[in-house]
Design goal:
By secondary structure, this protein is of the alpha+beta class. It has five helices and four strands; from the N terminus they run ββααβαααβ.
Length: about 140
């Protein structure tokens, strides 16, 4: 069964870790308001809607600027809620649900947020190397 992956420079996320990205980005958007929410929704609409084609979605510096702080806060909140599991073990907390894998489960969202944060850090360290979310 396929899933979504993340890559930034030499960094490659874990197996299917971006499969829950629509749930992660949707939850982050819900926590924003006004112009911040509008800008976030516009920038991430394809990923929120699950519209990733074979070429993937490329995120640049503007995306990372909008994403990094609320993603970090969301990841921390999920960690508190779930008891700070190892990211690669968190999907097991969702009990194998397919809906959970594609954004409904907190364990899958935690796994996704972890790898997306890692990609943001690589993006900064490598002076703007794009983050690519792709289906495989």
């Amino acid at each position: 069964m396929g899933g979504l992956y993340v890559q930034c420079g030499e960094y490659g996320g874990e197996d299917k870790s971006m499969s829950a990205i629509s749930g992660v980005l949707g939850a982050i958007a819900e926590g924003l308001s006004g112009a911040d929410k509008a800008a976030f929704m516009l920038a991430f609409r394809p990923l929120i809607d699950g519209d990733v084609d074979e070429e993937g979605v490329e995120l640049g510096a503007e995306h990372v600027r909008l994403l990094e702080a609320p993603l970090r806060a969301y990841y921390a909140a999920l960690g508190e809620k779930l008891g700070h599991p190892e990211p690669w073990e968190a999907p097991d907390l969702d009990g194998g649900s397919v809906d959970a894998k594609y954004g409904a489960g907190d364990g899958w969202r935690y796994y996704c947020a972890h790898d997306l944060l890692q990609a943001c850090e690589v993006h900064r360290e490598q002076e703007g190397e794009p983050i690519v979310i792709f289906y495989m």
